[in-house]
Amino acid sequence: MAKEKKKLKTKAYEKELIRLQGKLCVLQEWVKAKGLRVIIVFEGRDAAGKGGTIKALTERVSPRVFRQIALPAPSDREKSQMYIQRYIPHFPAAGEISVFDRSWYNRAGIEHVMGFCSKDEYENFLALCPEVEKAIVGNGIHLIKLWLEVGQLEQERRMTARVEDPLRQWKLSPMDLESWPRWYAYSHARDKMFEATDTEYAPWYVLRSDDKRRARLNCITHILGLIPYKHIPHEKVRLPERSRKHPYDDQASLEGRRFVDEKY
Length: 264
Fold this sequence. Notes:
CATH superfamily: P-loop containing nucleotide triphosphate hydrolases
Strand order of the largest sheet: 2-3-1-4-5
CATH architecture: 3-Layer(aba) Sandwich
Mean pLDDT: 95
Low-confidence stretches: none
Helix content: 40-55%
Radius of gyration: 22 Å
Number of strands: 5
Shape: globular
Number of helices: 9
Largest sheet: 5 strands, parallel
Number of domains: 1
Strand content: 5-15%
CATH topology: Rossmann fold
Structural class: alpha/beta
């Protein structure tokens, strides 16, 4: 049995996170300059830490480059479309990275386990998904698929915290409660998904996430290693002088306006 790692101290974690986020800023400039297109798919069980990991990945970069996508349940119209259709409009253009907080793999997970799709629809997805992803990659898009794997005990601890903490209860949906008893059904669905869609051109990477801090650092490091990039030199930024033409007391002109009470 592997020796349990010591808890990563806050100061050490924050220092390393800032360092890695600096590298993400460099990657961002490279993606923009070279017109790269990247899709990052985050999947995993409820409470696996997808939201916090995505936040760590995106909080220091431009939302115009790192575009977060978290689609709601499909509308009646979308249900009548080709399954992948509602995801395609969110695919990246040149210089963009699309970060999917859950993706078309809903069909291989929650839709299958909870009976929201038929057996034929599920099997058809598993058969066609590799071909669709081959077309995505063949079109020049970098496709990175991450599965966050949280253990049964740690998931229970996090879900219990959501139930008991009013500041976290918004994370707990009725569907989470319906899914909760079906741990092994989700495990079987995960295994079948990997078997059908873990390909050489679009592989799955499993990220252990019982330790949230280490998972975030490992995730960012892994993504940085999958996209070759270089530092793009920039001229030193200098603020231009402000115009002094037609100066006036622009604070006095605010008198009589409605100000927010300064309670802090």
